[in-house]
Write a structure and sequence with these properties.
Order of helices and strands: EEHHHHHHHHHHHHHH
Shape: globular
CATH class of the largest domain: Mainly Alpha
Number of domains: 2
Strand order of the largest sheet: 1-2
Largest sheet: 2 strands, antiparallel
Structural class: mainly alpha
CATH topology of the largest domain: Farnesyl Diphosphate Synthase
Length: 311
């Protein structure tokens, strides 16, 4: 078990699995004194662009979003950071068990304890938490190494669309079109992340570029290092960039004007992600270049710019 203090926490992804008397896999529980503080510490440690827009929310919604982010962060670390395959898959199963316990009213982990009130207050759907875990499972089992386009679509829905659907439930809305907005925007965010991380992912043996496009360019059998330097991969990245642009446009079309104020946190995040995509495009969608990064002041400027541009 990872030992952490009650104020500064670390993910439990690398901790050994516990087994309940009934044989069910159980998550190791880190030391903590306050579940909400634990979730907030996980979020703050990430340094994510996600945090700034959330500061504008009322306290119950802000705490709910921090708990949601902490769940995504800790489970994503299982997919990305645990070297042992059996342990990682066991931990993902244990998180599924913990989500089931959350919806039975029996959460044990500080993240699910922090989620208990938001689940009740905002009617958060269990299937979306399970969808997030499905996406990380796809990653861990190797399904996202040269996936089909259909697999890439499903993956984006799981790891980003489901997060978006949970988020808009927390923000609050009335129009039935808002979930469509959330799915399109989440998809655009995830494609942008994939384009930001092509080189880093390839160095870890992960290639998210669809096999159909790799075959079209006749580069499906290249090694990761050869792939990064190929013109074909650059063309594929440009195509995925255009797909992300279309998803951003579809998100705009799906969002009713009267819901823009409710969706302001999502629109502020969009203000950051579209500039990431602009920068990637300006560099020619070259997959061999380092990840596009913005410092804290640049992120703040982008969020403030989006804030003053929003209604």
């Amino acid at each position: 078990m990872v030992s952490v203090s009650s104020d500064a926490t670390a993910p439990t992804g690398g901790a050994a699995l516990l087994e309940a008397r009934d044989g069910a896999r159980r998550l190791p529980i880190p030391p903590f004194s306050d579940a909400k503080a634990y979730a907030g510490a996980v979020a703050r440690r990430s340094g994510s662009s996600f945090l700034l827009p959330m500061l504008l929310l009322p306290k119950p919604k802000r705490e709910a979003m921090l708990a949601l982010y902490a769940f995504c962060r800790e489970t994503d670390d299982v997919a990305d950071e645990i070297p042992d395959q059996a342990e990682a898959l066991g931990l993902l199963d244990a998180w599924r068990e913990e989500i089931a316990a959350l919806y039975r009213g029996e959460p044990r982990h500080p993240v699910t304890l922090a989620l208990a009130e938001p689940v009740e207050r905002f009617g958060l759907a269990q299937k979306h938490f399970l969808g997030i875990l499905e996406g990380f499972d796809m990653d861990r089992r190797g399904g996202m190494v040269r996936p089909t386009m259909a697999e890439l679509e499903r993956y984006c829905y799981c790891v980003a669309g489901c997060v978006g659907l949970l988020s808009v439930s927390i923000f609050g809305y009335r129009s039935p079109r808002v979930p469509e907005f959330a799915e399109h925007l989440g998809h655009a965010f995830q494609l942008t992340n994939i384009l930001r991380d092509v080189r880093e992912d390839a160095e870890r043996g992960r290639i998210y570029l669809p096999i159909e496009l790799l075959r079209r360019e006749r580069i499906e059998n290249l090694s990761p290092s050869e792939l990064l330097g190929s013109k074909g991969a650059q063309r594929i990245c440009a195509e995925l960039g255009q797909l992300a642009r279309r998803r951003f446009a579809q998100a705009t079309k799906a969002l009713p004007a009267e819901e823009r104020r409710n969706m302001r946190p999502a629109l502020l995040m969009r203000g950051v992600y579209e500039v990431y995509l602009d920068r990637i495009e300006a560099r020619g969608f070259r997959p061999d270049l380092p990840r596009v990064r913005f410092g804290p002041l640049r992120k703040l400027a982008l969020v403030l710019g989006a804030f003053f541009a929003a209604p």
